[in-house]
Write a structure and sequence with these properties.
With 267 residues, the protein is of the alpha/beta class. Helix content is 46%, strand content 13%. The protein has two domains: 180 residues, 3-Layer(aba) Sandwich (Rossmann fold), CATH 3.40.50.1820; 70 residues, no CATH class. Keywords: Hydrolase.
Amino acid sequence: MGNEPAVVFVHGMRTSSAIWDEQVAHVHDAGYDAVAVDLPAHGERRDERFSLPAAFEVIDDAVTSFGADRRIALVGLSLGGYTTLAYAARDAALQQACPAHTTRLAGVVAAGCCSDPKGKPVALFRDVARVTVAGATAASRQARSTTTRWRAALSGKGSKAGGADVAALLGGTAAVGPYRPGWQVVTDALTHLAGHSSVADVRATRVPVWLVNGSRDHLRLQEHRHLAAAYQGALVVVPGAGHDVNTDAPDAFNRVLTRALHDFGRG
C-alpha cells in the first residue's frame, strides 16, 4: 500500500490483545498489516511481570516483525496508550541523541489516556490496588477511603467526579480472553507510571498523535492539555462511549482509526 504503515495494537490494563479483534479485522480488510500484542503480565505473557522496559521490548518485537523498513502506527488504549506515548517519546529521544537513528513511527493513536499519571493521583490509585491485593477487611476500608481521596485529587471537584471510571482504569471492565490478570499487575504498572508524565511524552513525540476518548470517560480531564502539547495532534471524542472506547463504540472508533491511518500514511 505504498507508504501506508503497519499497525501495532496495545491493550489496556488487566485485559489482553483480544480487545482489538474488531480493529485488527477492520484494518486487515482495509489492506493494512496489523498485529495486537500482549503486554507483560497479560494474555500469553501472563507469567511475566509488567514494567515499561519489558513493554517496550514487546513493542520492539512487533515492530521488527514487519521488516526493517516498514513504517509503524501504534494504537494504544489506557495502559496501552500511556505505554505507546512513552515508547514514542523514547524514540524521539533516540533520534536526538543519535542522528543516525531513523524513526519508523508514522503516528500514534492514544485512547483513554488523557489524565497525566504523574503525581498524587496515581500514588493514591496504586494504594487502592495494594490494599485490594491484601484483601483484609481493614484494607478494604482503607481502599474505600483512598479511592475517595483519589477521585478528589484527580478531579479537583470532590469525591463524586471521576468515580465512574476508577474501576475501568483498574481493569474493572468485563474479562477479555481466557485469563484475567491479578491485581499485582496494577501495582506494577502504576509503580512504573508514577512520576512519568504523559503530557511530557506527547510534547517529546515528533510524529502525529491522535487522542481518542469516549465522551463518558471521566479520565479525559486533561485532553486539551495533551492536545496542546502535541507536535501534530488531533482530538476526537466519541459520543456515548466510556473508557473502553474501542469496544463501547467499535464502528465509530474504526472510522476514526481509518482517518488516523490515512493521515499517518501521508507523512
